[in-house]
Fold each of these.
Amino acid sequence: MRLHEYEGADILESVGIPVPRRQVAGTTEDTLHIAEEIGYPVILKAQVLVGGRGLAGGVRTASGPDEVEEIANELFGREIKGLPVHKIMVCEKVDIARELYFGVTIDGYAGKPVIVVSTEGGVNIEATARISPEKIASLHVHPEAEFYPYQARTLLRSLGLSRRLLVSCADVLVRLYRVFREFEALLVEINPLCVLTSGGLLAVDAVVEIDNAALSRIRQPLPKPLEQIDNPLERKGQEIGVTYVDLDGDIGIISSGAGLGMASMDIIARKLRPANFMETGGGITEDLLYKCMELIMMKKNMKAIFINVYGGINPIHEGAKGVVRYMKEHHVTLPVVAKALGNHQEETWDIFRSGGVHVVTGAATESAVERLFELMEKEVSP
Ligand code: GDP
Ligand code: MN
């Protein structure tokens, strides 16, 4: 779960990292009130869960009420990178001398957290890694070990920081690592961490992404995950308890595991366009698969559905009942192809067939998708 910038900024502030004076507005009127309170010039920042808002027109300066009104109206009325703007964060505008990058994430290869710092802040860190890798320094930390100020100083000294700036940056970095640990984050990022012309430091942007599996362990108050999701289909996915990623095609996919789901998606994409990635995990019931069908059919102009489930701990015959019940109740005429192997497979096939589902009994996802391709060709040229 990725937090909004204003939520991330509150967390950074709670551990003592300096952040700008700011307040969040939900209407143009609020935006104006807050701007008056903070004092001009202000920065208006669209609160959408995506990076690169600056370049997309979502971070703007306003030097007076007329500009605030104009920009707020514009932002509330448009999308930033496809996401609607429901909130604007109003911040004091500061004078920036330098922009740094501080981040902590998990290095999946090393199996450890990695702390990444760069003297090139405000830009995409991946681009810096390509173009000027010497401007980045990183350090792996053992997940259970402390991260000490002297380690932070050594790391930052390697980028050429010194004296007071070195000490104050190291302090921020140690605090940022504390956020990473305490919130069991997958990613925390300050980009940019600004050195002000007045000499102080200020975290001007905040990214905090928390591992959903850790939510129940975190003691600090957190926003409700459902409030974080802007896409109605992804929100429904979260409500019914499946992993759902919305894509822009028209072939729906239901799978019982991430591997099956990825394989289905990739192989289908050779000729057709997946509408989604969906994975139920180990909780299949009749009701759940009924709801998965409901979710897929929320999308307009779907052309086919591909089901790829494995019956290990999952009762796939129960799931099949849900799919077929949905198809009967809603008179689904789209081609539905299913590959279902494992426990109760014969029973599952019978149930699927009774509802008009095309069952593929082979073990390879390729051959099941091939069947989908054949059916779709028939659809186009009957
Ligand atoms: P992002 O594009 O989504 O990462 O949004 P950011 O919050 O990082 O804002 C984009 C850029 O706006 C930053 O990199 C800064 O250069 C600039 N910016 C944000 N706040 C201020 C400010 O108070 N003063 C100045 N001069 N620039 C700011
Ligand atoms: Mn940023």
Note: DSSP finds twelve helices and 18 strands in the chain.
Amino acid sequence: MAEIDGKRLLAGLHKLRSFGASGSGVVRQTFSDPDMAARRWLCDELTLAGLVASIDGVGNVVGRSQNPGPALIIGSHSDTQPNGGWLDGAMGVMYAIEIARALREDPATAHLAVDAVAWSDEEGTYTTFLGSNSFVGDLTDSMLQDANAEGETVAEAIERVGLTGTPRQRLDLGRHVAYLEPHIEQGPHLEDAGLRVGVVTSIVGIRSMRVTFVGEQNHAGSTPMARRKDAGAALFAYAVTLRERLAEVAGPVSVWNIGNARLLPGGESIIPGRAEMVIQFRDPSERVLDAMEAAVVAVATAMNDDGPVEVTVVPQRQPVAPADMDPELRGHLAAAAEQRVPAEWVDMPSAAVHDAMVISHHLPCAMLFIPSIGGVSHDFSEDSTELDIVTGCQVVADASFSILNEQRLSIG
Ligand code: HGY
Ligand code: MN
Ligand code: MN
């Protein structure tokens, strides 16, 4: 089996961390200067790894092995949340580069084809899984009109960073046989159980809805309470009622979160005439997601019936359905984990969403997790041990070898 170079992997991760570094975390949102600088650096790294590398028309960085297929695609995303951790996405990208290098450096595996990717906008700064949706041909024109919090659309951002007209890389079913996405768990389960590796069974579905409240802006002192149409008061009342309703329809692992709540104009002496929030919810079952979405709408309808504030609900992002990982690929990851960390691995679901959900509609996919310290992610303090980072990469490298070997044997 090709042995990965742990020191080289960690050095690359710390270099990638430097693009948008902020304390112990990273601020590298899609199409920002740090994001594009990181993508250019990744292009160079992929080239050094012997791959033919380019940034495509939506910002994906794709390194294509010069070996003929069958080819494995390995990777993740290189963009981050506004308050991102240094490993979320980045680790899978650097695993891909290290594995491509290690297989190429070992004469016994130098003939194998591993393509490496860093997807664009996994974190939804602009739209839903921009890079992986584009790669599989599911990017719609309306998604190109989705915008970030500042109102810049995907199309405008692509123009701004100079990618307009650049070809978009696409899945090649005549070459690509599987996609592996290594990732940190972003939750507490592996650490709580004292385990080193998670082999992902399935990934939750996710939906988000924007709820808007329109009342009347007025003076916070001279307007009698009984005559107010307070959009802010309506938002808070809605949020409390909604949590109760969601708890009634939720499944055992359902989660929900209120984000981007705003009172407008927001001064303490002004009754807010407008308020808005985004409610995001996730569950492994479409039926439960449907029930949760119905609750979001029902609470708004009841509030409209009572008045005095008008409440509207619209989808914030395209929903993403739950996705199962490929059993055969999982078997390769499980066998490699059992070899490297016997009895210290487990099959587990993913409560975070990933590009593998999008790819899995077109190509067999699998994911490997390593533990997150304290189960923390989407926070500057996100971290994992160096041992777990390096071990995870070796397990994925071993599985990559066995998957491609099996493919070549089956082709004959
Ligand atoms: O939110 C998520 O699950 C992912 O980290 N973007
Ligand atoms: Mn991620
Ligand atoms: Mn994330």
Note: The mean pLDDT is 97.
